[in-house]
Amino acid sequence: MAEESRIESQWYAEKSARMVELLGEEHDMVMHSLIPYGMGGGLDLYYYPHLIPGTGVATKELSNTPGDGSSNNVFTNYEFVMFTRHDLSIEDAKKPETPFGKIHFTINAILNMMAPYSAQAKLNPFETVEFPSEMEVVGGRCLILDAYGMTDAHADFGLMLIMEIHRVEMDYARQHGGQALLKKLMAANYYPYSDLDRPPVVDSQDVRGVGSWSRWKDWWFSNN
Q1: Which terminus of the chain has fewer Cβ atoms in its 10 Å neighbourhood, N or C?
Q2: Where are the domains of the chain?
Q3: What is the pLDDT of residues 168-187, one digit of tens each?
Q4: At what angle do helices 178-187 and 167-176 cross, to 10 degrees?
């Protein structure tokens, strides 16, 4: 037990240091869940408001020891990160009527939906995710994934960006590839933010008819 605790503590420190390299200094306030994630509760959320404008919101509970937990084709282990252009306001985080509280509420819901999914499925860069419309809070929302700040072809640890996008953008990514959409989002200076108070980078003329089903829906309906 003592050795396991030592390994977990060392891995946590290594992850945290790597996240600081990618996201800048971490804020000293953590949004702790009342019930730990490992016991069926919500995720603790960690904030990074210093490196780029706005706020990064990240997880640290997808992998507790090296080689164990969420993994994909580019990272042996990873954590999630999402961004908003809004400045960090801890006071407003639990006030959904405020601008920061509204986007924080959505980010929290998305991360808590994606975390258990990532434990069972390989989620790779450039893939898209669509939530079933009947789900609370996240229903009908569309996401694209990316390896945030990745420089090596494969790494022991990294960050997977979850970015909320417009539906027409998701349809475009499904037809032309997620990398093509990400290039457009970067060119428009919308990457890596999930704020949707912006116009889409593509329009309906760029998209042919596409189906709306996704493997996330398969997973959701088989587990609920």
Answers
A1: N
A2: 2-222
A3: 999 999 999 999 999 999 99
A4: 130
